[in-house]
């Protein structure tokens, strides 16, 4: 099955399989591109069905990180890592430190951070074995939980999306459905409620729902994402795991805008065209959810929250530029975003061929 994944040209520079039997570590690190700099991307700890499923995920996620970092204006390439297992049962200090050793062995080509199933405290442990890690705790001099600016960036992208569709970036009175109110989703709900939006949420975790309802009693709750897709919404915000938008979901969806924090929201290529045909604006996920990577990348030069927040706020302008290019060229926003990212990944490295005398 693994050979089948590599039967197509993934475009990756490097894929490393990591295993340590004593700790139970089984991980894959994928470096898609280092054209703009070291490949930065988080570590996902997840109970994949098998190694092939993990490989498919890490290849897609690492490519998305390259495009995300390019669009965010960072001098960083794109990579990702996955650890195969249940983080609630399998995570240990020894396993995380073993993983850190593998990250260190890449010599800085890959810089890791948090993702699904990993937290700032985990990155503090990983950092005991490698210096190529970010997203660390405030106590260790890091940026802390990157969910803060991830949610803020999605909010900025949503403002740009709403402005593109309705001519004003106002969310007051708009009905917005949030699928997944975990690390990022519940923070996004905070922004939306403060902006005067009518919010509807769903989540597989009752604890997550209870936390949102405790903070915002006026928020409505529906049973599942399928119900949210059929709901009378202005904006649909997928904020859980990816692949939520397939052909069936795209046909069911009643919202005019899709803008959320989840990675790889489109189940496969072609769904973006179906959304376009139905008059639904899809804000590319790797564009609007870049606030988190902006936050952790700022840590590499000594973290300053206000500076990082200003940079994340520029995602509003980037989203507007993507939507304008899409309209000018008659293509879906995903295609326009891809073109902008590819242009930057091609043009900036070319400048390094200009000889600069050493000091």
Automatic annotation (TrEMBL):
NAD(+) binds at residues 180-185. The keyword Signal does not apply. CDD domains: NAD_bind_Leu_Phe_Val_DH (cd01075). The active site is at residue 80. Keywords: NAD, Nucleotide-binding, Oxidoreductase. GO terms for molecular function: nucleotide binding; oxidoreductase activity, acting on the CH-NH2 group of donors, NAD or NADP as acceptor. GO terms for biological process: amino acid metabolic process. Transmembrane segments: none annotated. The keyword Cytoplasm does not apply. It comes from the Bacteria. Residues 144-353 form the Glutamate/phenylalanine/leucine/valine/L-tryptophan dehydrogenase C-terminal domain. PANTHER family: LEUCINE DEHYDROGENASE, VALINE DEHYDROGENASE. Belongs to the Glu/Leu/Phe/Val dehydrogenases family. This is Glutamate dehydrogenase/leucine dehydrogenase.
